[in-house]
Amino acid sequence: MPVTRSQTKQQREQSAPYEPPQQIRATRLASKRRQDEQDELAIVISPPPRRPEALTNNSPKSRKRVRDEVFIDDSPEPRKRARSDSLTRVEEINESSPTPSANIAQLEMEKSRLERAQYEQNEEIEQLKALVRRLEGEKRELAYQNRDLRDETQGLKQQIREHEEDNENFAEDMSGLEKENDHLRELIGKLEKEKNLLEEQKQVQKKRYQLQSERNRQLAEQHKEITTKAENEIQELKHDFKKDLQEAERERESLLDEISELKGSIVGVSRLGKQFGDGKFKSSIDRVYHGIRNCFLTIVKSREFDLKPQRGNGTLAKLLSAQVPDYQDQTVNDKLHVCMTVVSMVLVDFANQHLVFGHPSKDLPTAAWVVYQKFSEIDNLTDEKSVKQWLALTDEIINKAAPEAMKKAKEGSRKHIMDMIKKSLQAATTLKLTDDILAIITRLVSGCLEDLRLLEFQEWKYKIEMIPARVEGEHTPFDLDSMEDIYAEESGLVKASVFPLLSRLEIDEEAGSQRWTAISKAKVVVMTDSLATNGSA
């Protein structure tokens, strides 16, 4: 007996595990939609039921063909049962039919009945097939759900393991925090003790201050008493020394003359002011060097520009050929060296102009500068200390008498040196000098202008100069006493001279000799194989 859809549904519901009502409704709706789609697909693609051939005779061969066509079930029991039923009906027809025409009519009726049975059986078979397909689909879905549940279970297990590890780490962290808290408590205890000790010291200092204040008050009272007593004695002595007034007046005038002479000598000594040590000028020059190097190192790495070839015997061409002989290679190092050298040469030229009162103009500082220039032209001038005193005194007077003029002169110096730097860089390179670049260079240069001016006020004689990298076609040997390689080399030939030397004159009066001592060494580039082949700074 075939299994109907309702029976299959009851069996599935009895064997299915418990599910929540919402999930059951969702599953049923999904299953119903899938079943409807599969049934429609089965109806569309299923072939029409086969109809048995017409029975034209009652031979055993015809009966066998009818049985094979009607009963298509492959199982042995249904086939045997159908065969026996068919044979029985055919034999009954043969025994009861007196004539062939009656047999044919009965066979036709049996044929129609068999066709209907076959059609119904085919429908049940198709329904069972659709049911099997639906069950297989549900089986696959259950398998997918089972796999998802397994994956989710594995994920939950992994999360549980991670949470356990986190709990262990948290326990370790808590243990460490507890130890740290213990340490902090100990530290707080120590700080409390130190605080108490400081409070005690504070009280002691307070008592000492009170005692000192009381002592000062007593001393003030004693001083007042002594002063009052002395004044009384002076008043008494005035009458006694009245007769010696003229002699005392003469002595007073003599003393005043001596005091005036002493004041003059004191003023002469004090006017030699504005004296500073070598460290001030060295730090100022080194600061400018590092600032200029970092500035142009950033520029050559971030901006594209070329070095202009210098033709003829111009001043810039001569200076560059002496300071950076191989700048025509157009490497990154060459660009850096040329830019640094141009700024350094402008600084040296500015320092050698001796603009002690600022850039010349029509104001009072210019007049003082002209006088100072005349002093430097005197060959037999031996008293340099007097000139330094005059310079310091004049600078002080002008700053008090014409502060705006001095300020204007210093601003003129700043503008003058920046104009020289800008023109020199434009003549030597194709670099576009933006406002940002000029602002950086101005800030760096302005920091050393005052120190370059103060060099003129020093009792010691200083000079600032560029050391040539090549003299008469030969590269200058590296001198560790007066040179410093920017790449920390210690020997070789000078490839480029990029920053000036600041030195001080030392005179040995006993030996009758003098020599220049380097305060800030000249910054050079020593010629090495790596610098000859590598263009990176």
From TrEMBL:
Regions of biased composition (Polar residues) lie at 95-104
Protein origin, superkingdom: Eukaryota
- UniProt feature, compositional bias: Basic and acidic residues: 66-92
- Which Gene3D superfamilies does this chain map to? 1.10.287.1490
Give the region (Disordered) as residue ranges.
1-104
Name of the protein described by the UniProt record: Uncharacterized protein
Which species? Aureobasidium melanogenum (Aureobasidium pullulans var. melanogenum)
